[in-house]
């Protein structure tokens, strides 16, 4: 018996819908598709990402600016400069943005720009960070720890809920196992189990699970088929040039067609995938000519 007083379902139909901004939700009938680069790298990169992804079945943009890297010598993220690029990407695309916060000190800064604050796997049991995020009003995307049990995962969410923030989205991103062929193992059993135990929405991140771009689309479809409320995938205008997680990065076209392929799967399990309608953003006050060009360049 898991002592998740607030995260547990009170009855089978009990479901929470989290509103993440600009009409985009997670946990209702509609599937949420999040896409974007592992790291925000440059204005040119984010321009291409927001231009391409803003039409079609992708609803929110991701991009890390504070990066939890295994090596302290690896790229650590652009920090506030990256947040400004994300804010511009949101203005151009109309899509809400999701980015990671790694420490209590970063919360105010990240919350000023982001629509959803991500807690990375390596911080899933950083209880002081979770408590502090409980005092925020913005939604929290809580990623499962690399070796966290389902109970530990749910109790981590409970830390945020019990400190006052009801807007938590869980994210299964693969757990460590013995087989090095894939980076991690996407635990779809946990997705199915969590759908029964908790009213919180749960999405899957097949990119960090597989670690190989060629496996991402199949795992994304499997996640939706087994009840996930959405998926989050990494993509890049030039995948092989990604400064982080290049091996798992999809191209922007691949991300768009993956999203489109989720439509049929969603229908089978009683969900739907809405197209992102950001046509009103073509009247955005700056660079509107390029915005029109950009919108027109997406063919779906
Ligand atoms: C990420 O989403 O960029 C990330 C670092 O993921 P995780 O915390 O799941 O490793
Ligand atoms: Mn990554």
Structure description:
- By secondary structure, this protein is an alpha/beta fold.
- The chain has one domain: TIM Barrel (Alpha-Beta Barrel), CATH 3.20.20.70.
- Helix content is 36%, strand content 13%.
- Helix 1 runs parallel beside helix 2 (80-93) and helix 8 (213-225) packs parallel to helix 9 (252-268).
- The N and C termini lie far apart (46 Å).
- Residues 282-300 have low confidence and may be disordered.
- Bound molecules: phosphoenolpyruvate and manganese (II) ion.
- Residues 38, 208, 234, 244-245 line the site of manganese (II) ion.
Question: What is the structure about, briefly put?
Answer:
Helix content is 36%, strand content 13%. It is built from 10 helices and 10 strands.
Strand-helix topology:
Elements: E1 18-21, E2 24-26, E3 32-36, H1 43-53, E4 60-62, H2 80-93, E5 97-100, H3 107-113, E6 116-119, H4 127-134, E7 140-143, H5 150-162, E8 168-172, H6 188-197, E9 202-204, H7 206-210, H8 213-225, E10 230-234, H9 252-268, H10 288-297
Parallel strand pairs: 3-4, 3-10, 4-5, 5-6, 6-7, 7-8, 8-9, 9-10
Antiparallel strand pairs: 1-2
Bound molecules: phosphoenolpyruvate and manganese (II) ion.
For the record, the count of structural domains works out to 1
* Relative helix content: 25-40%
Can you summarize the main beta sheet? 8 strands, parallel, barrel
Number of helices: 10
Low-confidence stretches: 282-300
User: Outline, from the CA principal axes?
Assistant: globular
CATH topology, which one?
TIM Barrel
Distance between the termini: 46 Å
CATH architecture descriptor text: Alpha-Beta Barrel
Tally the beta strands: 10
Question: At the first level of CATH, what is the class?
Answer: Alpha Beta
Radius of gyration, in Å, reads 18 Å
Task: Give the averaged pLDDT, no decimals.
Answer: 92
Helix and strand element order = EEEHEHEHEHEHEHEHHEHH
The name of the CATH superfamily reads Aldolase class I
In the sheet with the most strands, the strands line up as: 3-4-5-6-7-8-9-10
The class by helix and strand makeup works out as alpha/beta
What fraction of the residues are assigned to beta strands by DSSP? 5-15%
Named once each, the bound ligands are: phosphoenolpyruvate, manganese (II) ion
């Amino acid at each position: 018996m898991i002592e998740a007083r607030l995260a547990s379902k009170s009855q089978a139909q009990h479901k929470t819908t989290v509103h993440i901004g600009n009409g985009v939700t997670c946990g209702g009938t509609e599937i949420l598709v999040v896409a974007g680069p592992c790291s925000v790298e440059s204005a040119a990169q984010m321009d291409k990402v927001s231009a391409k992804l803003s039409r079609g079945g992708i609803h929110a943009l991701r991009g890390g600016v504070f990066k939890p890297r295994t090596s302290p010598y690896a790229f650590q993220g652009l920090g506030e400069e990256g947040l400004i690029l994300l804010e511009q990407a949101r203005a151009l695309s109309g899509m809400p943005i999701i980015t990671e916060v790694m420490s209590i000190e970063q919360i105010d800064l990240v919350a000023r720009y982001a629509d959803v604050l991500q807690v990375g796997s390596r911080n899933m049991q950083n209880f002081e960070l979770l408590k502090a995020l409980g005092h925020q009003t913005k939604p929290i995307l809580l990623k499962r720890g690399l070796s966290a049990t389902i109970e530990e995962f749910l109790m981590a969410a409970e830390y945020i809920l019990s400190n006052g923030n009801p807007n938590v989205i869980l994210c299964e991103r693969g757990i460590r196992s013995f087989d090095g062929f894939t980076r991690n193992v996407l635990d779809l059993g946990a997705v199915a189990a969590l759908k029964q135990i908790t009213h919180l929405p749960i999405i899957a991140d097949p990119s960090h699970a597989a670690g190989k771009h060629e496996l991402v689309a199949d795992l994304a479809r499997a996640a939706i088929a087994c009840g996930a409320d959405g998926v989050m995938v990494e993509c890049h205008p030039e995948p092989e040039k990604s400064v982080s997680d290049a091996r798992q990065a999809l191209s922007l076209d691949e991300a768009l067609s993956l999203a489109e392929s989720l439509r049929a799967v969603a229908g089978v399990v009683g969900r739907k995938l809405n197209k992102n309608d950001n046509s009103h953003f073509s009247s955005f006050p700056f660079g509107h000519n390029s915005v029109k060009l950009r919108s027109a360049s997406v063919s779906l």
